[in-house]
Amino acid sequence: MLELCDEGNLKQKLAATTYSEKDGLALARQIAEGISVLHDLGIPHRGIKAENVLFKNGVPKISEFTLSLPEAATTKKSMGHLPPEHFNGSDISGEFDIWGFGVLLHQILFKSHPCGDPSKMAVLLNFITKDAYKLSAQDRAKIGNSTFDLLQKCFAKDAAQRISIDGVKSHPCFSA
């Protein structure tokens, strides 16, 4: 039996809503709490993306656990949320979900994907494997240093250097 989440998904909300940094961080913090529960249970989600965050009574709920299965194949629709370790054959860990969380946070704050256009495979792969996380001057001016720091830590290319979910939850940007 699954819970009925009848308020749409985050992708739909992002199309209709512009979040301030404060409101966007509040939403992201709730999503981080959900990821934390999964990780505490030893479950890496592997498919954290806007379409998989549903809402009930205004509360975000993480859904779609198909990619949590070790043998699950990744679809092209998920490519824009996959970290470098997916492409180099490394073991899957909780840090896999942190990359997806970073994509979500960026989308919440800026209504765009951090690489620009994830449908362009070369652009996407450069972002995932080579390019450092950066923002336009206009977008950078919209957020504080602490929020920018969290985004950078979510997009560390080396999973061992990426912030943990506990680090996300305790990050100073959530207490500012």
Tell me the helix content.
40-55%
**Helical run tally:** 8
How far is the N terminus from the C terminus? Answer: 39 Å
Number of beta strands: 2
Report on this model:
This protein is mainly α. It has one domain: Transferase(Phosphotransferase) domain 1 (Transferase(Phosphotransferase), domain 1, Orthogonal Bundle), CATH 1.10.510. The protein is built from eight helices and two strands, in the order H-H-E-E-H-H-H-H-H-H. It has helices spanning 10-16, 21-40, 84-88, 95-110, 121-129, 137-140, 145-154, 165-169; strands at 53-56, 59-62. The protein is globular. The N and C termini lie far apart (39 Å). The model has no long low-confidence stretch (mean pLDDT 84).
